[in-house]
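Trying the structure run again after the queue cleared.
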Amino acid sequence: MPAKNLVWVVVALVAGLAAGYAASIPIQMSLRAQIAELQAKLNPNYVERIKQRGVLIVGTSADWPPFEYVDKDSNIVGIDIEIAKRIAQELGVKLEVKDMKFAALIEAVRNGLVDIVLADMTPTAERGKQVDFSIPYYFSKGNAVVVLKDRLGSFGGVADLYGKKIGVQLGTIQEEWAKSALSGKAEVISYDRVYPEMVMALQRGDIDAMVVGDIMAGVVVSKVPGLAVAFYAGGSRIGAAVALPQGAYDLKYVVNKVIEQLLESGEMGKIFETEIAKWMESGG
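Done. Tokens:
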């Protein structure tokens, strides 16, 4: 082959390679972007992002004293808020609390509107499909059935709820229990908030009983004249844990560490005692 022709062949090969490489750049960039996105999902670095932001955003439903409620100064306070403060302190950031309906909390975690949820939320298999949970920070003796004190003698067990109107809070495990255990046997009415909405419904006679968490029930009957706990249903179980995004292993480690420290040191018990006393003294 003449030298001149060889030169043109080489030029053509180089040009072809260059064109091919140029054409592959968008594909390479797309692949790199996909790999980066996958790595971000596998290694989300939630803790790093929270520290960079400087704020831990906690979701709650401030109608559930003594766990979370609005005090006379319009501050959201309670047991869960104190635990949230300890977590924020461990992370070295400020705390921001977002109040919303209980039924909206899990979706708020999934959509990234909040980092974690502290709202006396019980881990269940169904909730575990959507969010992750920390270790429990307390255990419950069951669902409390609260009735008017002058009707206390009429309620001794689950069968006494049949044919009645039963109030529950929307999105809670008490609602799940009632709709399962009382399906076709009682009318289950869901309310956004326990206090004062559902309590007032019970006092008016709109419902015959309400089913709430055991600690919430203890506070309500001590503060509202004429109410009493008739019995506990559903058996003892985990009381509550912190809800987190699925895959937030670094954040879960920090949350579990704080809970373990609070439990082992006895400070968790003191938080419960102090916050229950505050709610009692506040007059509700």
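The chain is about 45% helix and 20% strand. Worth checking whether this holds up in the mutant runs.
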